[in-house]
Amino acid sequence: MRILHVAECAGGVERYLQMLTPRLKARNIKQTLVCSRTFTPSKFEGCVDELYISSMRQTFSPSAVTKIIQEVRKKIQETDPDIIYCHSSFGGVYGRIAALGLGHKLIYNPHGWAFNMEGNKSILFKYVEKTLAHNTDRIICISEAERKSAVINNIAREDKLIKIENGIDLEEIRRAKAKSKRDMGIPKDAFVVGMVGRISKQKAPDIFIKAAKHIIQQIPNAYFVIVGDGEEKEDIIKLAQQQPQIKLHITGWVGNSFEYMKLFDVGMLLSRWEGFGYAIVEYMAAGIPVVATNIDAIPTIINDGEDGLLVNMDSPEEAADAIVKIYKDNSLKEKLITNALNKVEMNYSIERVVKQHICLFEQLTRQTATGGG
Asked: Which of 158, 122, 126 is nearest to 139 (CA)?
């Protein structure tokens, strides 16, 4: 069996493929990855049989879109895969249009619906998703919230929607050794509040900094760490500098975020929209109590007060109160950690994700063999 992955957006999609592709290869599934220049090729050495860096990017230029589609189509024809597996919104557009008329089975995983994100293009994204769903065999929803959103917005027939909730590499997280506080310039007795994620509007790093202002009033030894990078980095640095008492360290992109994550006393994810929220289950698996926003897929992962604390979006005061609550109540902290670890081990293993994918691949290839739809 040969799978051709089409992926434009790195970030969470790249991490997803880093976990999925080597495990599929171990099961003798041949794979080609057609990706954008935002991907890091070295991360896929030995994981895929072929990696092709394309000119894919997020653009609405008709000439650029046409060129990208032609490029992807040529690669599909050269590879002749059994299944084309498209990842993220733009990857889904390029891959599915490029495959028109070629007769391949098509799987699409949006990794979070673009029409649920903020912005003035949500109507356009919804129209595109509905249109392209007609020639898509299966659409993978990474959470129950994503599946329900697809149903409510009439994106596709329900029999085309399959829920495969995201999973993580639990062993990799367990093996990771925490960075030294001393090497990072963090005081030994600091109470570390951290976030892992892109420094962009979606992940609300501005609310993280605004919450820090309130946190330090009750936890003077609080220290704040952002593991990631992004287009709003300079703005966030300036925002933090307005409050000199806020001690902030931004790592930039790192090879192993778990080594930094294990420094955290509390992990935050204050997203404004979220298809899943990898950082949440990673915090849980690392034994770090979680504070996150009560939006989209997040409340399907966190049971408020049992394995994490949920707060309203764009509410730094609520986020700060939740952090202080965990800081002051050790029994609550231990309960959240214990329940979260149990939940992750039962529900979010990458091996479960791999098995579900293989079942789907086999189902679709059987349909091809028998001429089914």
From this structure: 158
My answer on whether 134 and 176 are in the same domain is no
**Does 9 share its domain with 136?**
yes
Distances in Å between the alpha carbon of 242 and those of 34, 200, 201, 204, 245?
43, 19, 19, 17, 9
Q: H or E stretch including 6?
A: strand 2-7
Retrieve residue 16's tokens. Answer: 């997803």
Six token digits for residue 350: 């990458």
Range of the domain at 296: 171-347
Strand 50-53 relative to strand 30-35, pairing = parallel
pLDDT, tens digit (0-9, with 9 covering 90-100), for 280-330: 999 999 999 999 999 988 999 999 999 999 999 999 999 999 999 999 999
The total number of structural domains in the chain stands at 2
If asked whether residues 154 and 9 sit together in one domain, one would say: yes
Question: For the whole model, what pTM was predicted?
Answer: 0.81
How many angstroms separate the CA atoms of 129 and 278, rounded?
23
